[in-house]
User: Fold these one by one.
Assistant:
Number 1:
Amino acid sequence: MNILICIKQVPDMESKFKINAEKNWYDRTDLAWRMNEYDEYAVEQAVRLKEQVGAADLTVLCIGPDQVKETMKKALAMGCDRGVHIADNDAHKREPLEIASMIAGFAKDKNFDIVFTGMQSQDRGSAQVGVMIAELLAIPAVTTIVDFAFDNGAIHVKRELEGGGRALVKATTPVVLTCQLGLNTPRYPTLPNIMKAKKKELLTLAVPDMGGIGACQETAAFYFPERKGSGLVLEGELPDMAEKLIHLLKEKTGVLA
Amino acid sequence: MEFTREIYWNVGHGFTTLAPMYGLLLVAVAIFVLGCLKRIKVYRLGQPLERTDQLGKRIKNLLDNVCLQTKVFRVPGAGTAHALFFWSFFILFIGTTLIVAQADFTDLLFGVKFLKGTFYKLFSVILDLAGLLSIAMLSGLLVRRYLIRPEGLLTKCDDALMHGLLFAILITGFLIEGARIAVTEMDKPLLAAWSPVGLVVANILSGLGEAGLRTLHTGLWWFHLLLALVFIAVIPFTKFRHILTTSANSFLADLGPTGKLTTVNLEDETTERFGASELTDLRWKDIFDADACTLCKRCQDRCPAFATGKPLSPMLLVNQIGETAFNNPKANLIDTIGREAIWACTTCRACQDICPASIEHVDKIINLRRNLVLMEGEFPGEEVMTAMEQAEVNGNPLGMGYASRGDWAETLGIKSLAEDSDVDVLYFVGCYASFDKRNIAVAKSFITLCQAAGVKVGILGKEEKCCGEPMRKMGNEYLYQTLAMETIETIKGYGVKKIVTTCPHCFNTLAKDYQDFDFAIEVEPHPVFLDRLISDGKLQIKTDTFSCTYHDSCYLGRHNDLYDAPRNLIRAAGGQLTEMAKTRDQAFCCSAGGGRIMAEESIGERINIKRVQMAAATGAGQLLSNCPFCLTMFEDGVKGADVEAQLRPKDIAEILAERL
């Protein structure tokens, strides 16, 4: 089997975010970087599939500046066989269709049986890249999968639906699957695998032909929403807190009137 | 009248005595040697380890712990009885050796006798009293083991055999002496008086008549000889082996620095196995340790995990390794010992510190953890894996954004070394004092004290990262080394001369573990640093009386023997210190060492609550400590133990800052 896993490097969500000079995205200084959480599920599921079927080749793909290789190394340490880095310092400005066309441009002649990717990125969160890859490659896509089973060529996945419902979807290869929280618990790479990962192939490519697709949106502004009033946390002993609450309710609301 | 006695009286000096005697001795020694060789072969299954360097220090340890029984003596009662028994039995051994030396060598070959006159008198009376003391101590130990039966004491066939054999040797010895005296010395009261115990036995036996006494004597003499030879022969096969192994272990002991772990060479690309899951992954000393264990259970009695119902007994763990080595060497050690036991250790060192056999428990546990983490990617829980990943990304296990690490100090007028590296000391803040609200208060107090003393302090701010201690103790040597390298590079880059910590875990790591990475900058824990500022007159503290108890953190106490500096500070502040029952080197861990700060404690009682209850029992109003992990556990513990109102956990730095 030939499997592609698309991952993104994102800032740790606990980071101190600041707005960049162009006021269209966050500033890159003082950020800690990691693999997009949903992409970790994608990597883990691909590695598990390889462990199940034995004969599979896992290519992990990531778009961005040189520093994304650090995140790719984790995917390689988790069990991917080779890495493809599409060098693009402007990746953070790209809209989903551009990213998807880069990936499709790379993948079109490689005959991937399954493309795993996260259901969305933690930073931009558009949740479009996966389905757009499928469209550009003219293959089906199943989104937000929380369960995956592979049996002799047949794929059974469970999708998470609104309200906590589940849908069982059958599919055959080739297919794009976007992964949701709950699919699996990503492994912690073992030291021998970290060592091996250092020697795995990690190819850096220039931005491939995007088939004439260019930007068709523009981020007009980037800002933190204004704080409208704040919550109040009462602290102290229980009876005191009850007193304070009653006092507040009387003073600021009409519920006790 | 000559003060002496005839050696080989009644059994004869001739070939008919010596030939079978030495023949049997040869058999006993042969069995002994073969038994030892068989065990040595098993020790050699372990990995190589150099333990014969610093000979002077090792010989001193050997003499201290064997001849003086120093470690044995640390626990009164059984320890005292053992030491007294050892010394008296050792005297009996020397006595027997002197007899052999005279009868079969000096007298036989050169006609020289030295067991006569005053020397004989002393020889006789000392041996008599030593024999009596041996019997008394052995009886005491027998009563303890079989009647009192202290909780957790494992009694096996070996123990019955040892008691039986030793009693039989001692009693037959006195019966032989009694029979001889009854026949040869009853008319020489001045001579017999130098064998007081023998004389009592002689009086009891005297009714048997000379012929009866002589028959009894011959029979018992050969029986006593046989018992002594059995004793020699069974040493390698029974717990008697501890005479050799425990003694040898005090020579082979780890010479420190105390608690410094073995650094794994991660540069060596040929290594494919990390940590220990099989016997052959362990060092030979780890297998030897099992043979040195006497099951005295001192470790188990002090283990905080064992005391709170977790499936870890340091004693059992060491013996499971021994069982595996000798009975099932192919078995998987991790399955044999059990993951829950392996993860339960807080590396508090209470076991290793008290062990009279110089066994190294903590290294073994860390080695097993290394295998789980580095080879299997396993952790005690998902929360630990998350903390590890957080440390990889943000340089702290709490998952806080790295760039806000120095935010706590923003309003205090201190700068990061990036802004101003000309400082007296670098304050290595640590993760908890950087991010945890409660511990930020400690960091602020420490800064206030430094400023009051006119010390110019700098911090690393967002350049500081976790020192790697909790990760290392959890078995993640790779992440530890990654963090250590980064920290060392940062600190060295600023040409720092001196570092002060408020976290004993950081202190221990920077001061000891980093030595392996060529890091030799002076590091001092805050109680020592502040104690000197006060004694030098640079820091003035107003004495204001208050009642408190003090908890010795494991990493300042047992790992670094720092017990006095924090107590000096408490006194300087006016603290009326009521010590807990378990204090100083016997202190009970707070539960957060060994990387357990990152883990949920889901089995048994909670260790921190137990410790807080011990503190509350003193009736003191404040529970002082010197460690952010301890403080965190105690803040949680006072709630759990429901003593929040009467017991306030604080760091010593806070008590001092309140009294400027």
Number 2:
Amino acid sequence: MVFSSVLFLFRFLPIFMFCYFLAPGRMKNLILFLGSLVFYAWGEPVYVLLMLFSTVSDFFIGRGIAASRNRRKARGLLILSLAINIAVLFFFKYADFILQTINGAAGTDIPLLNLPLPLGISFYTFQTMSYTIDVYKGKVNVQDNILDFGVFVTMFPQLIAGPIIKYTHVQSDLHTRKADICEISYGCKRFIMGLGKKVLLANNIGILWDEVSAMKGGDLNVITAWLGILAFAFQIYFDFSGYSDMAIGLGTCLGFHFPENFRYPYSASSITEFWRRWHISLGSWFREYVYVPLGGNRGGFVKQIRNILIVWILTGIWHGAGWNFLIWGLWFAFWLILEKMFLKKLLKKLPMWTGRFYMMIIVLIGWVLFAVEDMGAVLIYLSAMFGLNGIPIYDGKSLYLFGEYGVLLIIAAFGSLPYIHQIAGRLKGDNSGYMTAINRVLEKVLPALLLLISIAYVVEASYNPFLYFRF
Amino acid sequence: MEEKINALVTVCFLCAILLTFTIADFCSEDRLFSEYENRILAAKPELNRETLRNGSYMKDYEAYVTDQFISRDTWITIKTWGDTCLQKRAINGVYLGKDEYLFQQHLEEDIKMHLADDKIELLKTLVERYHAKIMLVPTADNIMSDKLPVNAIYYDQKKFLDQVTAEVGAGNVIDVYEALEEHSREEIYYRTDPHWTTLGAYYGYQAWVSGMRRFAFPYDTDKLVTVSEDFLGTLHSMININRKPDSIQIFPETLKRPVSITYDFQTHSQTLYEDKYLETKNQYGYFLDDNHAFIQIETGYKNGKEIVIIKDSYANCFIPLLTPHYEKIYVIDLRYCRGKLYDLIDENTTSLRPDVLVLYNCISFIRDFMYY
């Protein structure tokens, strides 16, 4: 099920919220768990069992780790948990990629599995692994209630597309939580904002990327290629951050406190900063469970580079089973290492806009790798972007696309920077009676309008994909 | 405390919006057919083990809930309004042109998917076997391209037509492009529908007459009769915002002599024009009762001549103009008819060498033309 659908907004959500808020305290987790199963099984009637298997196995392993008296047994159980999760992930997500690579290199013809990717598998396996690792480290208390644990893994706000929740984030809320009315109000508004980002901005600017990516490589000129990749950059940002907004909004209404996943990444002035603002929960996961255990930046510069490379190869392929994703990860690793070595210090000395400009170029080139996938086509696209394919910089089609999408691109650019947030902050900060009244009206009317227009686009939509669904 | 009351009001207000539509939607009745979208709306799917297991119930239920959502048409209108605010000139594949013209968007990438070359080969076989004449009509975006939005892209049908002429032979092709281009300032295409108007069909008729070296029947464009003034065609349905409606006209000369029409070997009619369509959204169906696989027309002109027209819907307003030239007109729409084309032609015509005309607009030709 997708949040931005008539089915979710006008069937699942009202019915679920009605049952949830009417249910007595301890029943709430049961309602949440069952509702989440319905939510997941609706799109994946068979793979829901896989998710339940992952949940149940890590629940019992967690108990086992906490109960085991010696370190070796606990460690063995931890390795079992990691092995199961990684095996499941590997089998469903990467097996065909490996098989294809072997076939290509060795000339064999091993048949591919062609298994459809279970929804959310990259999210929930990482979540359950964070739990077993934290229990082993003694960082969290073991969860003895299988229902509560089930809620942690499967709860529908973040099940399909994150943010990746570590057990520490929800540990106490699982047992006792209450959203006060101010939090619910915030949650509603946050949800509506995410909905608007997705259906008004992401879906619409995505059409521009669709048009450009369907063009023959040879027809791409400089302007069209840049328009296209900017469109993709905005699409994936508003899509993913919009979905995170909706997840956080819903979670807040239920009494949870999910971590932020995006902090205006396109306002960053270095790649290091970009990755502290983009898909924060993933970066945080890899830092805590891969980078630091490997030694992080202790142990000398060479080791640090090795650790960075490992983390970024993993980050790359987490996003997709393909060589282009691996190279995408390495692309960022390269710039991150350069920044650590000298680039960041250099950027600090230059005006701010150089950093932001540099960041945008690197990120956009990265998006070409990410979105175009086939390496040959990537090179063609990049050469078009930099005017290396010998055709004139623009043509009729470029002008047409610019006219069609210009306004939307400007709105998207403005929306991807913190200006609106800052303006809103300043308005709210003004405590004079007259401003308070205006604020109170705006904070009801603006979300209401946004909701209504979003509903119109949802009803009309024949185009409603979510890009991170392949994870 | 004040903060809490304010928050409560916000929550109630926003949730009320969602709840109102949810409840209203539950209470509203399901619609069977959407006049605006000219299609059947999804119905409630059947719930059983099999459909649950393979997920088809879920998909169908979602389609059902979305199709039947309350005030669907109004929401679509709001969406279109949103798009126009963003200064979009193409909405849902329709260009918002100048002078209130709507143009269907045809992009090269979409056209390239269909194997036009194979279809031209099929044309050549028809020409060889029946000395067929080929009449492919360009769509409005090619002829009235000055009314398209600035820099709008369209598929160049002149190039395609030149290719057809080169392959099939100039003597076998009726060149409509030039004829229409000469009159491009007149109302030869509907504003809200992709079809050509009766006036446009008339200029096509003149091109046909000159290509076939016949004498033109003296149709008088000053005497055109308007049968409808509120026609809002399929292009309007795709965007659903207020537009000036089109008028549908006919030449009264086509009504002079009686006709006897048989549709699909079953239904009979005594007129080329079915009034009942003028009460519906699909007013273009007025011409030759919309779409049929096979039509036999016996005109009042007893001259022993026969013609077989292989066509798409563009021909529907053109065929009445041919009635003075033929005693019998056979009309075949390949999208709906099953069975071999040659058999259909050979078994139904009586004369040894009936005229055969292939009449399509370029886009549906490239997309749909296929026979066995």
